[in-house]
Amino acid sequence: MDFQGVFFDFDGVILDSVQVKTEAFAAMFSSYGPEVEKQVVAYHLANGGMSRFEKFSYFYQSLLNSSVSPAELTSLCEKFSDLVLEKVIRSPFINGAMEVLTELKKTSTPAFVVSGTPDLEIKLIVKRKNLESYFNEVHGSPRHKEEIVAEILHKTNFSPPRCLFIGDAMSDYDAARITGTNFLGIVPKGGNSPFPAGCLTSPSVALHAQLVK
Question: Residue range 15-29: average pLDDT?
């Protein structure tokens, strides 16, 4: 194996938990009617990896034409966390995820979580899933993914072309593109790829060592 480091998104890459969060967003806006609920779900799915804080801000300002204070946004995020936390923890692993993590650990290849989930929450989830020993570092929002990856690349002195980012959303693809790492897009069987033509995709997590330049 020739990768110096591997970066992972979490929902939809490590755990099959995307639907849990989709249902939670729908539930939180169901009282506004089916059209708003539909738009909320569509925006959430089209903006995977965006922090929930940013999503709630968009929903209130653009869909409900309502102002929302930072304190109210924090309260909404806490309510969302209450809805999803235990369900995310109970979610099954994406096919291939544990096999890849086990192989990386066996070969002492550094692995990192770079998630749109709030930082403290994603650290708790990783701990509750007994995954701490598989990752060198675990990071979440509000920092953007490209910022986190760039910082890790700088402090480890890894060569971006010898690193891999595995993600399921355009925010993951963009982080890889901006920082110069290789990218593997996770797309469920039968699902539509959000990624540009020519992007390597797979329904399961894999290392694809042939990507190393």
Answer: 95
**Which residue do the tokens 């539509």 mark?**
192
The answer to whether the beta carbons of residues 133 and 105 sit under 8 Å apart is yes
| Bond before 34 cis per omega within 30 degrees | no
Phi, psi (degrees; rounded to nearest 5) at 183: -140, 140
- 176 φ, ψ (degrees, to nearest 5): -65, -45
Please give the radius of gyration of the chain, using alpha carbons only, rounded to the nearest integer: 17
Q: Which residues pair with residue 11 across a beta bridge?
A: 15
Q: 149-177 burial, b for 16+ CB within 10 Å, e for fewer?
A: bbebbeeeebebeebbbbbbbbbbbbbbe
Q: Is the dihedral of CA 22, 25, 31, 34 positive or negative?
A: negative
For residue 137, report the phi and psi dihedrals to the nearest 5 degrees. Answer: -145, 150
Its pTM stands at 0.91
Question: Which of 197-205's residues contact partners 24+ apart within 8 Å by CB, and which partners?
Answer: 199/173, 203/95, 204/94, 204/95, 204/96, 205/13, 205/14, 205/94, 205/95, 205/96, 205/97, 205/99, 205/100, 205/166
Both structure tokens of 81: 């966390």
pLDDT digits (tens, 9 = 90+) for 30-73: 999 999 999 999 999 888 888 899 999 999 999 999 988 999 99
Strands of the sheet containing 137-141, edge to edge, are: 137-141, 111-118, 5-8, 163-167, 182-186, 201-202
